[in-house]
Amino acid sequence: MFFYNELKPLLHQISSNSPDLTSIQLSHKKITDKHLIQISKALTTNTNICEIWLTNNLITEGGCGYLMGVLEGNRGVGEVYLGGNKIGDMGAQSVANLLQRNQIITDLGIDENSISDAGAKSLLDALSHNSTLQTLKTNGNNIQTEGIVDGINEVLKVNRENARKKLLEEHPEYEMSKIKKEVKKKKVRRSRDGTNKRSSSSSREKDRKSSSSNGDRQDKDKPATDAQITIAEETLADNFLKDRKKSLEEEKSTTLMSKFKNGLGLGSGGGDGKKKKEEGLKSGRDGSFC
């Protein structure tokens, strides 16, 4: 059993909004509703906690409902995991109420919580008012209607895609870093499998030259080597970055040129300004400047 003297230091950290504490890790601690209510009260003024782990405890709909009520006004917590408890359909309804009012949480786990179709239906209805939740774990419950689960997954898919688009609009460099990470992962996997040894930059350059000069003599049906695949992936990533940078520069240049033309009176409706400028130049040639 988790005793209050063990919980007290944590409650103090949470309520004092300690910047050193960003995650509550209380899984497999036999946390009861009473404990959770104390934790929830401490969370009321906290802005640094980002994730809450309360899996495999003794939490029912009462404790769940209290926590969800507090999280409605919280702007810091983005992940909540309550899998392996006993919140049931009433707890699922509390979660649904939260999803209608909270646009911060992105990941939520309520798997293995004795939730039936009724609770799942309330979650699906709530998701029509939520655009931020991207992951909802519901496996291990008593949901019998596949259509409800499919509906939930479809909404989450749309939310993930919209979140990705928004991220790329605000931070276009993110896509590039993502591509490079994927390339790095593939290289590491090949290295672990013993199918590809990390080559130096000089050897990769030799592979490029060799591939270019001997391309006509190679058998067209011969599969590409791992080194050639890695080079192709890196080239693809570099080209993506160059194209993205060029596109942003062109967009910026177009905007600046438009502002410049408008300043000279050469934009739309700026014909008179252009005419006056030409007349002024002509007057200058005639020696009639004042």
UniProtKB/TrEMBL annotation:
Biased composition (Basic and acidic residues): 203-224, 240-253, 272-290
InterPro entries in the record: LRR_dom_sf, RanGap
Annotated GO biological process: nuclear export
Keyword set includes rRNA-binding: no
Annotated spans, Disordered: 178-290
Composition bias type Basic residues, residue spans: 181-190
Protein name as it appears in the record: Uncharacterized protein
